[in-house]
């Protein structure tokens, strides 16, 4: 493995917490090991933040936010320039960040660099433009005999706790940090315990760019660290991406001081292929939509519905493509798919596959066995003979597992597609533009792709219907959940 000198240097010493612009040990001295999922070897020890450390970070973030602080005195233009500098630094360190992501998460180095890291840099630059464009409105009032001037202001909320998952570690951290600081908030970031490294390296780059002390704090830890953040009365907002189960717990815990909450939660996206679709394009889209990022993506099309007349052809095409995917270490140039992120996730995904076989389903591609002697690898799997009651069909698996079910009519497939607690994404393939738009409009999901999958841009809002979450991220809409709307009324005499 040809690691960059900067990566070797970063991994040469235990990682600390970032609190108030300083790198510090956890108050109780606890640490944990972060593991390379390709080799199952420890990478480095990382400080484990306790509730005491959470208190320290909240105090620092509150002080940085309060009126009169260097952060509060920064103009929107100053914040814009700062965000742009951070984007430049991320781009300059893209190869280093990509290697750290591949080591910690398992994804391919190229995928991390050209996807996650490049998008992170672009996000900082995109939101740099919004820092100077958060405007209010003037509103005419109708009060007989009196004259008023009424207007609105967009103001930051305060201290934001960002809690992010392990599937896109750096990118999800940026999803929380960027809109928060664009609006003038301060942040306490809690990265996933499986993948803390790029968040910590990002913390170093933020300080290098000139982010004032206390504005962004990074607290690695486990569920108890996140729970302490969510329950803390000094936190004004929680922004969370992760499972629906944890999202429900966060919503309940936030009731203590009625802090604001935005949630991007689980998904079980239906991918619908009609008989009149461009079948070759639909097969390629189903493979990308199903197996992207090792299947560890909440908007993946894990439920494939194919009109009966082309069902066998589509299944044959997807199965062949899945079987041709080379699974291996993220540093192996020949690998097309890396490992799952952890032993826990590996066992969970294989458990779902084995359960489907026990229930009578058929593995048209893939296997219920682990790949190789070490590493958390799973073959891309396609399962047929599935009914709507099977766990493999109803549950978010978060691995390279796709189920395929035939359908006959539009009404039938729309009912099946919407028969889920989730509503994050969906897709439709049809050369009839009327069919595509009509069915897309009937699907209950926050993002609907027509004749494509995973087409995306930093300008587009994302979020879910039903139990897939609250609020939207990215685009201009992504700032709404990080600001308070104030109304000001002045009587003119």
Automatic annotation (TrEMBL):
Keyword field contains RNA-binding: no
Keywords, ordered alphabetically: Oxidoreductase
Keyword Oxidoreductase: yes
Active-site residues, Swiss-Prot/TrEMBL: 264
One Pfam short name: Aldedh
Record-linked InterPro entries: Ald_DH/histidinol_DH, Ald_DH_C, Ald_DH_CS_CYS, Ald_DH_CS_GLU, Ald_DH_N, Aldehyde_DH_dom
Domain Aldehyde dehydrogenase: 23-488
Family stated for the protein in its record: Belongs to the aldehyde dehydrogenase family.
Protein name: Aldehyde dehydrogenase
Record organism: Asanoa siamensis
């Amino acid at each position: 493995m040809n690691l960059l000198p900067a990566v070797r240097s970063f991994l040469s010493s235990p990682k600390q917490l970032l609190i108030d612009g300083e790198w510090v040990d956890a108050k109780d001295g606890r640490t944990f090991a972060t593991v390379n999922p390709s080799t199952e070897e420890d990478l480095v020890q990382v400080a484990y933040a306790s509730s005491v450390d959470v208190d320290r970070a909240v105090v620092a973030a509150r002080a940085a936010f309060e009126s009169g602080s260097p952060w509060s005195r920064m103009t929107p233009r100053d914040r814009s320039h700062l965000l742009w500098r951070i984007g430049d630094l991320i781009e300059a360190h893209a190869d280093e960040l990509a290697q750290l992501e591949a080591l910690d998460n398992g994804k391919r180095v190229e995928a991390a660099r050209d996807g996650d890291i490049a998008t992170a840099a672009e996000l900082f630059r995109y939101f740099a433009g919004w820092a100077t464009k958060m405007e209010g409105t003037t509103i005419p009032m109708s009060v007989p005999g009196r004259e008023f001037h009424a207007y609105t202001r967009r103001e930051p909320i305060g201290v934001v706790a960002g809690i992010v998952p392990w599937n896109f570690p750096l990118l999800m951290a940026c999803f929380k940090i960027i809109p928060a600081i664009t609006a003038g908030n301060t942040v306490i970031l809690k990265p996933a315990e499986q993948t803390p490294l790029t968040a910590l390296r990002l913390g170093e780059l933020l300080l290098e760019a000139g982010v004032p002390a206390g504005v962004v704090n990074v607290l690695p830890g486990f569920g108890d660290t996140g729970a302490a953040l969510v329950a803390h009365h000094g936190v004004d907002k929680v922004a969370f991406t992760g499972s629906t189960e944890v999202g429900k717990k966060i919503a309940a815990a936030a009731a203590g001081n009625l802090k604001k909450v935005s949630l991007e939660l689980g998904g079980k996206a239906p991918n619908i292929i009609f008989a009149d679709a461009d079948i070759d394009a639909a097969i390629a889209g189903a493979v990308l939509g199903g197996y992207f990022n090792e299947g560890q993506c909440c908007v993946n099309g894990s439920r494939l519905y194919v009109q009966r007349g082309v069902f066998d052809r589509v299944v044959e095409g997807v199965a062949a493509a899945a079987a041709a995917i080379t699974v291996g270490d993220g540093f192996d140039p020949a690998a097309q798919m890396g490992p799952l992120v952890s032993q826990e996730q590996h066992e969970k995904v294989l458990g779902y596959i084995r359960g489907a076989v026990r229930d009578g389903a058929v593995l048209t591609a893939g296997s219920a066995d682990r790949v190789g002697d070490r590493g958390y690898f799973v073959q891309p799997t396609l399962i047929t003979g599935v009914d709507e009651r099977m766990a493999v069909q109803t549950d978010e698996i978060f691995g390279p597992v796709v189920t395929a079910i035939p359908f006959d009519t539009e009404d039938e497939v729309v009912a099946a597609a919407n028969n889920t607690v989730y509503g994050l994404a969906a897709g439709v393939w049809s050369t009839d533009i009327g069919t595509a738009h009509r069915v897309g409009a009937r699907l209950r999901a926050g993002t609907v792709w027509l004749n494509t999958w995973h087409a995306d841009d930093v300008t587009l809002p994302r979020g879910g219907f039903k139990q897939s979450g609250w609020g939207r991220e990215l685009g201009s809409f992504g700032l709404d959940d990080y600001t308070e709307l104030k109304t000001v009324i002045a009587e003119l005499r």
